[in-house]
Amino acid sequence: MNQYRLPVGLKDYYGSRLDTKEQLRHYLFQRFDQLGYHKIQTPLLEYEPVFAEYETESRDLYRVLEADGNVLTIRPDLTLPIARFLSTTNVALPNKFSYVGEFMQRHREYQGFEREQTQAGIELVGYPSTKAEFECLTIINQINQDWFDNSLVIELGSVDLAEAVLDQVTKDHDQRRAIKQALFQKNLPVYEKLIEPYSAGPIGTFLKEWPWLFGSSAEIEELLKDSGLPAPIKKIIQQIIAFAQFITNLPGQSVMIDLASKAPQKYYTGLIFKAYTAQSNQYVISGGRYDQLLANVNSKNIPAVGMGINIQMMAELISPATPASRVEIYCQQDQLFAAQQLVNQHVNYELSLADSLREARSLAHQHQRQLMILNEKGELINDLENRTN
Which residues bind L-histidine (predicted)? Predict the structure, then answer.
């Protein structure tokens, strides 16, 4: 056993893969800056109660025991630390925040995922208007155009829909939870058994069709045309369809509706949106509205919309940018100042650190770079013996 190998689910990043991640970081921050977002950075470790509203098994969290007995948690989520920050500071709201950071979740390695993930995201806090959701959706569309050649599909759903449907069925908390669990996990035998007592009721037909209500806005409208749904359910579906129709007007953007989609976390309250490609088995982008996010910290219901962007997943899916050709400059010891001036004037130049021309040629060949020589007259000439093309 190699004691220096990495644990399962962790990975080193180097070279072009790391370059792609850094390009994405730069692109996203630049985009967020253009839209007036304020950067925020929270620590990797938080007190465990910060993540009380995070829906995961307790064993999936990484914990650190302090000398004073307090338990710290390595964050599995980046939204809840921002909620903690807002609840303990006097930052004026409404406001818009952007971030890039790492989080860790245990047991992801057994699902083929990395335990440590890099996520970029935005939080629009204090905005009740649906314009906040629209801004997120237009950002996703811009990412789709700039990086995915319009192959990114947006999927819409709503947390409110399941609650509105079950309000028509039962008030029993355990029964509602069981139905939702079977529905979201696509456990159809269990789901069908659970809804059987209500199949003859006013929304019995909808309950039977619910797991399969996935498609375009036109398809969903056709499926529900004569359903006779109660007004609260119909209103939520019409809101989702309105968002979908907005998205269809964005350049090259595909959109689907899933009326049986599960919220990413239990603090979500309204519209949820996700984005994926045919090449991925998990979502690249995930977000939505969570108007009760801060209520768990300071007892105030403050409207909020946000989304997270999986930079690792993006880096895996997009074609890496072709790096600019690099040039190494070889010079004598007494020419270092002049050579450094040339390096400062050209972004793709760098100083060859070799002590001899022979070594410089060998290193340039190894690095797959062009070699140029600063001659005795101070002229920069191509090394014809080491041309890269």
Answer: 77-79, 119, 123, 267-268
Mean pLDDT of the chain: 90
Does position 228 have pLDDT exceeding 90, yes or no? no
pLDDT at 310 over 90: yes
pLDDT at residue 318 greater than cutoff 90: no
Is 183 annotated to bind a ligand? Reply is no
pLDDT in tens, 33-83: 999 999 999 999 999 888 887 776 556 788 999 899 899 999 999 999 999
292 annotated binding-site participant: no
Q: Is 267 annotated as a binding residue?
A: yes
Question: Residues 73, 74, 76, 77: is their CA dihedral positive or negative?
Answer: positive
Q: Are residues 363 and 301 in the same domain?
A: no
Mark whether 357 and 331 lie in a shared domain. yes
Q: Determine if residue 119 is labeled as part of a ligand binding site.
A: yes
The reply, when asked if residue 77 is annotated as ligand binding, is: yes
Range of the domain at 36: 15-168+203-317
Residue 176 lies in a domain: no
